[in-house]
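Service request form, structural biology core

Requester: graduate student, group of Dr. S.
Request type: structure prediction, single chain
Budget code: on file
Notes: please return the result as C-alpha cells.

Sequence provided:
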Amino acid sequence: MAKTLYISDLDGTLLDNNSLVSQESARIISDLSRRGALITVATARTPATVSKLLEATVTTVPAIVLTGAALWDRNTQHYISPIYMTRSLAAGVLQELADEQIDPFVYTLSSPSALLEVYHGLEMNRKERDFYEQRKNLPLKRFYIGMNVPDACLDKMMLAFATGPTDNIMRVADKLKKRGDCSVSAYPDIFDPKASLIEIFAPGVSKAGAVMRLKKECGADRLVVFGDNLNDLPMFEVADLAVAVGNALPEVKTRAGEVIGPNSADAVARFIEKDCCL
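Core staff response, request fulfilled:
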C-alpha cells in the first residue's frame, strides 16, 4: 500500500467559515495521525497562528509555514531550514513597494529558535489594523508598529506581506515578477473581493518546493494536497492528487483532480479519513 502524505491549505480549505478547525475535523485528523497517517498543513500563515489554530489537532509532520519559506516543528517549536532574502534583494523589494506607496509587514527571523519579528513603518489602514489586532498578542511573534525594519535585519528578512486594492497589488506584483530575483504570490482576499494580498519571498520559495521536500523527508510514495485559492496552484502541479474544496475559486477547481465538499462541511478531514481506508 502506498505511503501517502496529506497536506492541506488552511484558510478557506481546512478552516471553516469561522476561520477555525472544527471539532469534528480536529477529531478525525488527530485520530488518523495517532494511527500513523501523515497529515499536515501548508499555509502563508506563521507558526504564531498555526500553533493556535491547530492546538486541538494532533499532527506528527512538520507544518509548512510562510508559503514554504520554512517548516515548523510543532513539538520543538523550532523553524526548520528558514530561507532568507539577501540584503540587496530585501532592500530592492522594499523600494519597489515604496514606489507604489505600499507599506508591507516585514517578517524577520534572527535564528530558528527565535521569535518572528514583524515591522510595519507607516500608519495602518483599516485592513492592516484588523490584521494586526488579530495577531498582536499571539506568542512566537513580536510586532514593531511605526518602525521600519532595521538595516541590520535585512539579511534576516523572510517575507514582505501587504494587502490593498487589487489594482495596486497586481501592479506591484507584475513589477516584482519582471525582476526575476524573488518569489511573488498575489491573489484575491477571500473575505473582500475588492482587495488582494501579496507575499514576496526569496527566489525558489513556494508551497510546491516545500511539499516536495516534505514528501521526500517523510518517505512518502504519494502526495495528496488540498486548496481553494490561486496560491495553492503551485502545489497542485506537483501533487499526485490535487483536491479542491467546493468553495474554491473556479480556476482552482479546474486544475484539481477532484472537487469535494466545502470547507464548512469538514470536507478535507472526511476525504482523508475515507482515502486512508481504501
